Amino acid sequence: MSDIIQLLPDHVANQIAAGEVVQRPASVIKELLENSIDANATRIQVVIKDAGKTLVQIIDDGIGMSLTDARMSFERHATSKIKLADDLFSLKTKGFRGEALASIAAIAHVELRTKTENDEVGTCLKVEGSQVVSQDACVTPKGTNICVKNLFYNIPARRNFLKSDNVETRHIIDEFQRVAFAHPNISFSLTHNGSELFQLPITNFRQRITNILGGKTNEKLVPVEEDTEIVKISGFVGKPEFAKKSRGEQFFFVNDRFIKSAYLNHAVTASFEGLLKDKSYPSYFLYLEVDPKSIDINIHPTKTEIKFDDEHALYAILKSSIKHSLGQFNVAPILDFERDSGLDTPYDYKNKDADAPQVEVDRNFNPFQTENNFKAQYSGGGNYKREKPAEWESLYSGMHSETDTDIDIRQVEFESEEVTGNLFGAKEEQTEKSTFQVQKKYIVSTLKSGILVIDQHRAHTRVLYEELLKNITVSSAVSQQLLFPLRLQFNSHEVEMLKEIKDSLEQTGFVFSAINNAEVEISGIPTLISESEVEILLEQLLADFEKDVPDNGFSQTDLLAKSLANSMAVRSGTLLNSTEQQHIVNRLFACKEPALSPFNKTVFTTLSVDELDKKFA
Ligand code: ADP
Ligand code: MG
Q1: pLDDT tens-digit series, residues 83-117
Q2: Which pTM was predicted?
Q3: Is the CB of 36 under 6 A from ligand 1?
Q4: Crossing angle for the helix pair 578-588 and 456-473, nearest 10 degrees?
Q5: Less Cβ around it within 10 Å: N or C end of the chain?
Q6: pLDDT interval class at 242 (50, 70, 90)
C-alpha cells in the first residue's frame, strides 16, 4: 500500500488554527488590540460595523511594520516577540505565538496599511483566505491600520453560529473594556455603526475606571496598595454598600493582562466578610504585578485562567491588603446592613412594658370562596387610601373581575413601615382580623377545614408576576409621569442590555426618554413602583438578564416579569398590617396559579383539622 500521510496545505492548517483563536468578532478585537499595545501604540481606535460581523477595524500609532515584516506577519508562527526559547520566561508582550494574524487572514478579508517611522511610504496588503491578493506602496501615517471584513465568509457554519448583533456587541465591549482598564496610558475609542460608544483619553487608573463605567464610579472606589517581594498590588475595590447584584464588575489584571481566578476572587470576597448583603458581589479592579517567571506563560490565547507559583501567599497578601484598605478608609464601621426595623424601639417607649399583640382569627375565612364573599368580608378593613383610583383601575383592566377588589397594591408594599412600633403604642383600632403574620414571613389564615400558611414574598411575587405578564403581553400598563426625569448611570454593557429589553419594559409602564452611552433618562415609571426603587430594580433586572440571556421574545418577557415581580414583591422580614395581609391573600387566590411562585416554589401549605387532630391524639 502506498503512503497516505500528507502535510495539510497552509490555508487548511490556518483555518483549523483559526477555529481555536477566533471564536467571534470579539476575539479579533482582543488579538488586534494586543498587537497594537505590543507595538507601543499610544492611541488606538476601534471601528466596528454590524457587531464586527461586517467590519472590525483597528487603527494604531505604534511602530508599524516594514514591507517584509508586513508580509511575514501573516505567516503562521511568525512573531517578532520571541527569538529564543528562554525568552518565554521573561515575556513582557501579550502575543508571542505568531498565530493571530495568520488565523484571522484565513477566515476573513483583511486589509493592512502600515508604516514605520523611518520609511517614506507605507505598505498596503490585501489578504483573503490566506492568499495575498494585492500588495502596494501607499501613503499612510506611522502605525498600523488593519481592517478585518466579512469574518467567517468562507466558513458559513461558523458565521451562522454567531449570536445576535446585541450579544456579539456585548462580547466586544467586554474585551474592549478589559484591555482599556489595564492600559490607562493609552487612549482608546470604540465606534459601532457610526456611533461612538467610548472615547477614553490617556489618564490614571482611577479616572479610566470612572470613564468606562461612568458617572459616580469615582466615589465608590477604595484604593488598595501593597508592595511585597512576591507581588505588587494596586487598584481599587468598590465600597461594600455599592456591591452589585451580579459579578459584572470584577477584574483582575496580572502584568496588564485581564485574567479570571476563582481562587483570588475568593480572597477578595473573604476580605469583605460581614460587610456584604447576601447575594451581592463586591466590585474590584485589581492590578497585580508579578515576576513573569512565577506564572505559567503557556496559557492558551483565548483562555483567561493563569497559574501562579505561589498561589497561597498571593491569596493571603491580597486578602489582608484589601481588609486593611477597607478599615483604613473607614468603610467598615459605618455599615449596618439588614437592620431589622421591627426591632427598633421608639425612644419614648423604651421604659414601657410591651403589650402583647392581639391576634384575632376569623374562623369563617376561606380563600377559596368567591369574589363577593371576599368583598363582603374585607370591605370593613379599608384603612388604606385610594390615591388615584382611575389610574390604577385601568392598570388592571382586562383582568379577571375577581381581581378587581379594592386594593391598591402599592399600599401593600409601602405602608408597612408605618405599623412598626405598634407593639408598644396605643392599641391599633381593631379591625376585623382574619390573618396574622408569623416571623414577618408567613401569613397565617384559617380555613373551614384547617389552617392556611402563605409565604408572603412568594405570594406577592406570584400576584405581581401575573399582572406584569398581562401588562406586557395584552394591555399596556399605565405609567406615572415623573415631574423631573430620572437620570441613571449604567455602564455601556448594561446600556446595551437595556436597549434590548426596552420595548418590553415600556409595556410595563417605563418611559425611556433617552438612552445614550452611560446614562439612561426615564420620564415615566410603572404605577406599581416608587421612584426611589427604580435604580435597584433595574440593576437586579440587568443582573438577571446577564445570568440567563433569553434567546427569544417569549422567554424575554417571562424573565422580565419574573425579575420585576421578584424585586417588587414584599420581602420576608417586612411587617404587614392586617389589611396588607388580607390583600395579598385575596389577590393570590385570584391568580391563575396561586400554588406556585413564578420560580416554581410552593406558595402556601395547609394543615387540615384532621392532621391537627392526629397531632393531639
Ligand atoms: P504575535 O502577536 O503572537 O507575535 P500575531 O500574528 O498577532 O502574532 O502578529 C505577528 C507579528 O506581526 C507580530 O509579532 C508583530 O511583529 C507584527 N504585528 C502585528 N500587529 C502589529 C501592529 N499593530 N503593529 C506593528 N506590528 C504588528
Ligand atoms: Mg498578536
Answers
A1: 777 777 777 788 777 889 999 999 999 999 999 99
A2: 0.62
A3: yes
A4: 50
A5: N
A6: confident
CA end-to-end span of the chain: 89
pLDDT digits 0-9 by tens, 209-236: 999 988 678 888 999 999 999 999 999 9
- Regarding the beta carbon of 63 and ligand 1, being less than 6 Å apart is answered yes
> Ramachandran region of residue 279, left (φ > 0), alpha (ψ -120 to 50) or beta?
left
Residues 285, 224: Cα–Cα separation, whole Å: 9
Q: Assess whether pLDDT exceeds 50 at residue 418.
A: no
Residue 41 CA: which ligand is closest?
A: 1
Cα–ligand 1 centroid distance for 235 (angstroms): 29
Residue 240 CA: distances (Å) to CA of 131, 282, 326, 402: 54, 6, 9, 45
Query: Per CATH, which fold does 10-200 belong to?
Result: Heat Shock Protein 90 (3.30.565)
Pick the more confident residue, 223 or 345: 223
Max CA pair span of the chain = 103
78-107 b/e (C-beta count within 10 Å ≥ 16 → b): ebbebeeeeeeeebeebbbbbbbbbbbbbb
Q: How does pLDDT run across 527-559, given as a tens digit for each residue?
A: 878 888 888 888 888 888 877 766 666 677 888
Q: Which CATH number fits domain 205-328: 3.40.1830.10, 3.30.230.10, 1.20.210.10, 3.40.50.720?
A: 3.30.230.10
User: E strand or H helix at 435, and its extent?
Assistant: strand 435-438
Ligand 1, residues 20, 31, 38: which to mutate, most atoms within 8 A of Cβ?
Answer: 38
